[in-house]
Design goal:
Shape: elongated
Strand content: under 5%
Radius of gyration: 34 Å
Helix content: 40-55%
Order of helices and strands: HH
Distance between the termini: 117 Å
Structural class: mainly alpha
Largest sheet: none
Number of strands: 0
Number of helices: 2
Length: 76
Amino acid sequence: MAKLTKTSVFKEQATRPETTMDKTTRVVRKMVDDEAEQRLAKLTRLRNARLEREANTPPQEIAAKRTTRAKAAPKR
């Protein structure tokens, strides 16, 4: 029976070099993730500001205006 050693059991797998397409994909994904994070932060900030503004402003009572219908022209 062959003697098992750490190097014979867990062999390192050869890593292939990163291609140009892989580099591009990695960079673009990072850019998209960063933009999404910034967008989420902005959305949260604006939402909190809107909710705070709505909480601090008194509700305005809107008077319902009654509109009268124009009388129909007399029929002949």
